[in-house]
Design a protein that fits this description.
Largest sheet: 3 strands, mixed
Number of helices: 25
Number of strands: 3
Radius of gyration: 24 Å
Helix content: over 70%
Strand order of the largest sheet: 1-2-3
Length: 502
């Protein structure tokens, strides 16, 4: 279990070596009021951090396994659930159901986010895991349109809404969970594993769809093969739920709970009942920054990982299997780079890494899409890889950047609301909007222009945000890995206090 060591700049630790200082930390920790959380250092156990990261990443992987499968098999789903003979209309209908789930994500965020700030991160993440798995599993059981008529697309929509509602509490909770467990100096690296889980889910979904497309005939895929990826969600959900139920609450939330049992109980209880109005308008600047950062992150994410496979097939008439293999290879490359990019954000800062991504999408979106439109395997691979490497600038930094925008008492709620509003309005609608724009204008360069517009908005957000690398989360004490590091934090604080009063 993480421990707390006090850092009291105004009452410094006596000088001496590490052996002298560490016991002093222990003594002062026992004598200090639990309500003085702002003057403590959190010492986290590496084994506990690894478990927290693994459980959060696995849940994210399961979520995006479903989204990846849904996107990559969209053409088949259009034929199963929507009767129109027009392939474009079928694809639009399928992406419409895809986008509908994002419309309820803010509602899920407004429910699960404040609940996570009230009863704890771990409990809410277990609930969202159950709902996600159930919604995905049920899609695999829905009869086709040929069997029950309009009931089929209606049931598909209901299952997607359940998924969207549960997902509203997933990313904000998972990123908060990892951020509150991670030591300050490694928050970028550890947070990057959350999006590693996202990519792993996409790779699993894409790999399975590719394998099915290669092994099954079109008739078999249409009649029963498409169900397999969704039915796999059942056992995956059970495994993920088991891992999450074994986790302990994060140090930051546990400290709030501890404080609530002291003489300040009434005030802390009031803080924990902070309403949605306070979570949004009380944090309005951070909320706007969150929306802007999530916009560029998710527009480019969904464009590359969800829309591009269908773009290659429906718009460029590229062979479906080869298109999926290219995207799969790009995601594997992204997975390999992800942890290293997270380390870079710890060393050089979140802002420089995100800024490189925004500038890259602004300058390279058109050339990359022109390469993709050449149609050759090499050209498509080069264009997709360029976009994938730029996307890593966001996937590796956002899990550590976004939680740092908000204080502990509203972090889960505010982050969930801001994240899901942005995803719902801009990210999840990307495939639908771009498909519609291409249909209305006939311009197949629309994906590039859409990414460039997102990059401009993201660049403004980066310009206005503060650097959070190697700093404590707002409202939380410094977090370190060892007692020796805690001693060093105390010593540094003592020197800084002495210098400021000199």
């Amino acid at each position: 279990m993480p421990t707390q060591s006090p850092v009291a700049p105004g009452n410094p630790v006596p000088g001496g070596n590490r052996k002298d200082a560490a016991p002093d930390l222990e003594k002062r920790s026992q004598g200090r009021s639990a309500g003085e959380s702002s003057s403590e250092v959190t010492v986290v156990e590496p084994a506990m951090v690894k478990r927290a990261v693994s459980a959060a990443a696995l849940g994210n992987a399961m979520e995006w396994f479903d989204f990846g499968v849904y996107s990559y098999i969209a053409v088949t789903l259009g034929k199963v659930f929507f009767p129109s003979g027009d392939s474009t209309v079928q694809l639009l209908s399928t992406f419409g159901a895809f986008a509908a789930a994002f419309l309820v994500r803010p509602i899920g965020g407004m429910v699960f986010g404040p609940l996570g700030d009230r009863i704890g991160r771990q409990k809410v993440l277990a609930i969202t895991m159950i709902m996600m798995a159930a919604g995905t599993f049920c899609i695999g059981l829905i009869p086709s349109y040929a069997s029950i008529g309009m009931g089929a697309p209606i049931l598909l929509l209901v299952a997607r809404l359940i998924q969207g509602f549960s997902t509203g509490g997933e990313y904000g909770g998972a990123s908060t969970f990892i951020a509150e467990y991670a030591p300050d100096k490694k928050r970028g690296f550890l947070g990057s594993w959350l999006e590693f889980g996202t990519l792993a889910g996409y790779v699993g979904g894409a790999g399975l769809v590719t394998l099915m497309t290669a092994l099954l005939s079109s008739d078999d895929l249409l009649s029963w093969g498409w169900r397999i990826p969704f039915l796999i969600a059942g056992p995956m959900g059970i495994i993920g739920l088991y891992l999450r139920m074994r986790l302990e609450e994060t140090p930051a939330f546990a400290q709030l709970e501890k404080e609530a049992r002291t003489k300040e109980k009434e005030r802390r209880d009031a803080e924990k009942r902070i309403g949605i109005r306070e979570m949004i308008f009380g944090q309005w600047r951070s909320m706007l920054l969150c929306v802007g950062l999530v916009l560029v992150f998710n527009v480019t994410d969904y464009m590359l990982l969800s829309y591009m496979p269908s773009y290659l097939t429906s718009e460029l008439k590229y062979d479906e299997t080869h298109g999926l293999l290219v995207v799969l290879a790009v995601m594997v490359v992204m997975m390999c780079i992800q942890p290293f990019a997270g380390r870079l954000s710890d060393r050089f800062g979140r802002r420089p890494v995100i800024a490189v991504g925004c500038l890259g999408f602004l300058v390279l979106s058109v050339p990359a899409l022109l390469l993709i439109r050449q149609g050759s395997l090499v050209a498509i691979a080069l264009g997709m890889t360029a976009l994938g490497l730029l996307l890593v600038c966001f996937t590796s930094t956002m899990p550590s950047t976004l939680p740092a925008l908000f204080p502990t008492k509203v972090r889960y709620g505010s982050l969930s609301i801001g994240f899901n509003i942005s995803v719902s309005v801009f990210g999840g609608t990307t495939p639908l909007v771009v498909t519609a724009l291409i249909g209305a204008t006939g311009n197949r360069m629309m994906p590039a222009y859409y990414m460039m517009a997102a990059a401009v908005i993201g660049g403004v957000a980066v310009w206005l945000m503060s650097e959070s690398a190697r700093k404590p989360l707002p409202g939380s004490p410094p977090a370190v890995e060892t007692e020796a590091e805690a001693v060093e934090v105390v010593r540094t604080a003592r020197l800084a206090t002495a210098a400021s009063t000199a």
